[in-house]
Amino acid sequence: MSSGQPLVRVEELQKYFWEQDSILDRLLGAEPVPVRAVDGVSFDIYRGETLGLVGESGCGKSTAGETLLRLQEPTDGHVEFDEHDVYELAGSELTEFRRDAQVVFQDPFSSLDPRMTIGEIVRQPLDVHNVDTVEKRRERVRELLERVGLSADQLDRYPHEFSGGQRQRIGIARALALEPEFLVLDEPTSALDVSVQAQVLNLLDELQAEFDLTYLLISHDLSVIRHICDRVAVMYLGEIVEIGPVEAIFEEPKHPYTEALLESVPRATTDERERDRETISGDVPSPRDPPSGCRFRTRCPKVIPPDDVEIDQEEYRAIMDLRERIERRDISLESVGEDGGFEFVDGAVSETDLPAFVTALKTRVIDRTLAPEHDEVVEEALAELASSNWERAADVLSSRYESVCERRRPELGEESHPAACHLHDDAEESIRR
Ligand SMILES: Nc1ncnc2c1ncn2[C@@H]1O[C@H](COP(=O)(O)OP(=O)(O)OP(=O)(O)O)[C@@H](O)[C@H]1O
């Protein structure tokens, strides 16, 4: 369990990728737009604890883990390991860090070299770091294999001769070879059958107690997180939205994203199964162009309407989604007339067809009945689209419905269980600003 000083301190860590710009972008001389994989995350990992990093695929978990291990160069930010600045390390200090901080990858099939025996695989870090005599290294490999539940007699065999769970044990033995203090476990059980997952997690638990290890466990699987973590950091689109003790995260989640993640976990009871398989609605926005303010607001079921707007959440969501489509110009105006029998000529419909256009378009883009005062504003916006005034249409909606969630980025506080959400801002007043 955790105690005392943090072993790892991550401060405002940022990692952007520029590599994936398309050739077309480059030919057109477009300004490169980075993928903001990790966008200013801060957290501590205390000695002896397991911190879980959880979030949907693509939210930046692996990049955060690799960058804090200095397997990737950071774009900005700081990481301290045992009170040393990781990005300033050089020479023997860097070598020491490379021994003290190890990683176990998800896929035990691709992370082990198929041409090497498992004895060679586990011994490799000892050879690279030139630890002890050859004889002692051999002995250590035998001990390690036994310790992770394999037989030392198997060290001349090749990875393909082992099951997935056994290969992951080999990966763990290799990570432990240099007696590290800290392990990043990147989806260590995701490629394994459920029955084998618990065995590997139990092994990791035992090893942690035996060798005083500190873990950062990266997983999209909340049941894995719950099984083994002391604290949990929840990531969404490159940011940490909530962090806290594992029971608090599971029993009293604060951020609507955490709540949604928990909702999507399949539960054991039959009647709940179907509902619980639902995933969070809406597409994950691109990390090249994340939403302003709170990044989860485009999918959030609790987005905050302006103070003076009385509206139920589903209506508000429908209007916010419509506004987004208008901003992205993601509505085919030309085809609206196909149902109504009128024409869209030179980007506009005639005055006479305007009411029919608005009605036909509304049926397409809003799938619910709106209260009259909101219906009126939406019709006003849609009428702007009758003459392709996209910007004015978006303005009509934003001037009435702009949310604090899009105006201001919520801060993650420093208490023991903070959530970066305006619903948890201290002063009610401040969220309306
Ligand atoms: N080398 C790279 N070049 C460009 N973009 C990258 C690179 N590596 C990751 N990304 C992008 O960064 C974002 C975060 O990826 P990352 O793998 O860290 O997420 P993740 O939460 O670990 O997801 P997963 O569980 O699917 O690996 C994604 O949009 C991904 O496409």
From TrEMBL:
Residues 266-296, 410-433 are annotated as: Disordered. Residues 269-280 have a biased composition (Basic and acidic residues). InterPro entries: AAA+_ATPase, ABC_transp_ATP-bind, ABC_transporter-like_ATP-bd, ABC_transporter-like_CS, Oligopep_ABC_C, P-loop_NTPase. The keyword Transmembrane does not apply. This is ABC transporter ATP-binding protein. Belongs to the ABC transporter superfamily. It comes from the Archaea. Keywords: ATP-binding, Nucleotide-binding, Transport. Pfam families: ABC_tran (PF00005), oligo_HPY (PF08352). PROSITE patterns: ABC_TRANSPORTER_1, ABC_TRANSPORTER_2. PANTHER family: D,D-DIPEPTIDE TRANSPORT ATP-BINDING PROTEIN DDPF-RELATED, TRANSPORT ATP-BINDING PROTEIN. One of its GO terms (biological process) is transmembrane transport. The keyword Isomerase does not apply. NCBIfam families: oligo_HPY.
